[in-house]
Amino acid sequence: MNKNNRRPAAAPPVLFYRFACCIVFFLYFFSSFSQCAVAPAFPGCTPAGSIPLTDGAVINAGTTMTFSGTATYANVTVNGGRLIVCGNLSITNFTVNSGVIWVNTGATLNYNGGGALVIGSNTSYYNWGTSLFAGHVILSANVTVINDWYFASPFNYIIVQGLNSWMVNNYRVDCGGFMAWIPSAPGCLCLGGNSWTTGNYFYNRTTNSVVVPSGSACLNIRQYASNDYPVSPDPGLSVCVPSGINYSGIPNWGSATVNTGCNGCLVALPIELLSFEGRIDGEAALLEWVTMSETNNCRFFVERSQDAVNYNSVGTVSGAVNSTAMLSYQLSDPTIVPGQVYYYRLRQQDCDGHESYSSVISLEYSTENEDPEFIGSNSGNGDVQLMNTERISEITVYAASGQQVMSSRKESRIDLSGLASGIFLVKINTTSGKVKTYTIQKL
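Given the sequence above, the corresponding structure tokens read:
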């Protein structure tokens, strides 16, 4: 047979098949990002069969350990089991091989050992409180981190370097830098609506490493970016960079909206949401939120779900349109029934129709163990008396600028006499793991 007449019969079908498979995978992959991953319902601070955490504990598969109160432990290892944090826990030698970690609303997990925390394969980390890390945070393969409040490695990197690993930020993440490293997958940084992610450095080694499935989110990079591939397919990603930022090669932010010369996420987002909290008030759910500023903000929709997937609006509150002052809002939902867990979020709508979403909070309507009120008499001169102090685990006070002006574990009063007049936000973490917020005015 003449070699020149030989027909490579198998090659075209094989190539076509491979090409078709790639297209199907591509469409499937990006259609799967209809929303960022949602954490499952919180199991409670003392689920059945759980035992208190001890210093030096090794939490193996089938074991659940819980922590409340305030303590510093030298050694804790999560080795396939569950760790539930409902207090203020500091760990100087923390090993995470696999398992599940929960940080409850109002709780703090502070890893201050200084070395990198390598989160081992097949680990889920759900943060509704505050998670602080003194070293790098490295996500191995098959790791899911879902942050619904504050997750920070202020002087070090958050590094995704494993396949099927996801860093989900639904509120605020601060870090020295973020790396979508090899072999991380597209969408390894998923940002919920109205979330902030701030870092000094940004390294992108994966096409479309950052996704914003709905609304708008802010990525604030302060000093340096190395974008080997397009960063995001979503115009809802607002990238905030200073005018003097350094780049490695040509900046390639993909379809993101780039704001050059801005110094923070306040420029990129329509509102600065300081808090979104909920509590059971009698036989209703009371939703309360505070904004630090608003730009073109027409209204808020309070949306409710019973499965954390399908949401329906339960009420609307008008926004201030434009404001640079701290404003408080609330809405009562009287249509709840006892024994049911409800999930709530805010849907914020600009006057031009653009929308963004807050992080999700959960409430369980129970007739038992309700927290009382904590703010007593307010003289107006900055001396506020507290009630039921035995039910308070922490008090934090913020000025209208957003600056924290007070933080304490146990106090019988709030003394703002040395501060200028104005409106202050008081955030109280209760011993039952809930959070209550109040606004007080000093004349």
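The CA atoms of residues 296 and 321 lie 5 Å apart. Try to locate this feature in the token string yourself.
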